[in-house]
Design a protein that fits this description.
Keywords: Membrane, Transmembrane, Transmembrane helix
GO molecular function: transmembrane transporter activity
Strand content: under 5%
Largest sheet: 3 strands, mixed
Number of helices: 25
Low-confidence stretches: 1-40, 591-604
Oligomer: single chain
Radius of gyration: 26 Å
InterPro entries: MFS_trans_sf, POT_fam, PTR2_symporter_CS
CATH superfamily: MFS general substrate transporter like domains
Structural class: mainly alpha
Order of helices and strands: HHEHHHHHHHEEHHHHHHHHHEHHEHHHHH
Distance between the termini: 35 Å
Shape: globular
CATH topology: Growth Hormone, Chain: A
Subcellular location: Membrane
Mean pLDDT: 79
Transmembrane segments: 158-179, 185-204, 242-263, 269-290, 369-386, 406-430, 442-459, 492-516, 528-550, 556-578
CATH architecture: Up-down Bundle
Amino acid sequence: MSSPDAKVHPTDNKVYPHDKEVVDQALDRVSSIDEKNIEGDGSSYIDGSEGVTQHDLDTLRHVADTLPYTAWLVLIVEFAERWSYYGTTNIFNNYIRAPLPRGSKDGRVIFDVANGVAGALGQGVQKSFALRNFWVYVTPFLGGILADTLWGRYKTIMIFALVCLSGHIILVGSASPSALAQPNVSLGLLVLSITIMGLGAGCIKANVSPMIAEQYTGRLRKETLPSGEVVIKSPTLTIQSIYLWFYAGINLGSCGAISASFLARDNGYWTAFLVPTCIFALVPLVLIAGKNQYVKTPPRGSVILESVRVITMCMSHRWSINPIRTIQNFRSEGFWDTAKPSFYEQGKAPVRITWDDDFVGEVHRTVKACQVFLFFPFFWLCYSQIDGNLGTMAAGMTLHGTPNDLIQNLNPISIIVMIPIFDKIIYPFLRRRHINFSPIKRIYAGFLVAGLAMLYAAILQKFLYEKSPCHDNEPSACVNADGDPWPAPVNVWVVSGPYILVGMAEIFASITSLEYAFTKAPKSMKSVVMAFSQFQTALSSALNFALTAVNVEQKFTWLFGAFAVTAWVIGTIFMISFRQLDRMEEQLNAIGTGQRDGFKEEEH
């Protein structure tokens, strides 16, 4: 994959108003580059590079650059935040779904520890799923807007880290024995803590992922390795590598849920929630420690409002009472032209146009990126099963001393193991073979693998129904005459397959979506675009909420099977819809990477 800095930028400041014109201009640019290199034997330097010629770019091996120190500091922040998040949410399923075990006052298992399941509130599967997911993926919009327009990313993360810490403290109080003795009080405190933690975590999520990539400021350059080989240090591959390791940090932090499962079962939920609260206290400390070293992007004033004005201006004359006609108008040639100053005669542009042609192009680019993310709710439908329904499935199996909600940690563990393999072996192998495994193709592969994980889960659930003493009448709640668990003679580790497959799907789709959001968004709108990509998880939760009636254990086989088919169908539609963007990958990366960052900073 070539660096975005490797492209010669247009000198006429034109933007891309529609797909056909984008393709034509891209081909013209490639042709002009080829002609230039034929005339100069490829000896001309690439614009924006450090002494790299087109011949170097075409013939030398491309490798990722070294990650800066501050990127690792941001990674520690994400690690601690994700430990606290998954160290609490991964045990929410049992905490909300299951009742207090026999003789327990704080959720710990007292009798039959080998097969017992920790619990507290006894609200059932449906309420458990409804309470846990939606809010934290809506709030990134607030964090993104505040960072891009008012506070900047660093200050936004710091403020909402303190907000999130207060939510963790309330959560610990909700799980105390005195609170659990009054279920309504405990449930009320839980909802309050989820609201506060969701606000804090969501606003952090929108800003940490772009902030870590912004720590890298290197340019396209040549470097001689100790072996004597001369290679190209590629910013594009460096960003890809940053997000691979960023995601590894996320999942290393999520392994904190391993201790949470045992703490809840053996010591009660207040202890299990206290540990991630202490871990989260590291976030503001690390932020303060690196305060003077971070690369900080300042807020850009009213860029969001200006973007809305550009979009509404382009849409204003293209509405029709016929919805199909409206869609055709929105996709027509020249849709973005009416918002560009160059569209009008000199001095006759509308007064409300306070931007230039480049800014319109960047808004167009942002919209294009957001269109890609619209397919992700269906991917997250598959992912959402690993922290809820698959745990419920595991509760109906023979545990042999393994907490049922421990198995889901195979997902982050598998990701941690696979990321170095993909980063150091698989992706470099594909590049050496000149196989263009572009972001669109990687996302499509993620949909396919996620569907395979759901197919595995559907077959396994059918098998569990047959083996459980209670058959399809809630195997997870099956008990004997004494009221103790009566599991199916199926080893709980059999359920590891979907967790590992979903982990692989995340490497293909989720990590790539972070990379795509960062590289395709103009600098002035990176947090908002990142928030939009994460908002798709909220839409997935809303879809799950709409499926509450069928989100019951007796229908898990059909539910998993339907998700598998949905992932394959939607993934295929995604690939067909964006195959044109896939061919334009490098050209899209090049927009807005010249001297201009995307907005007139002196005005804000």
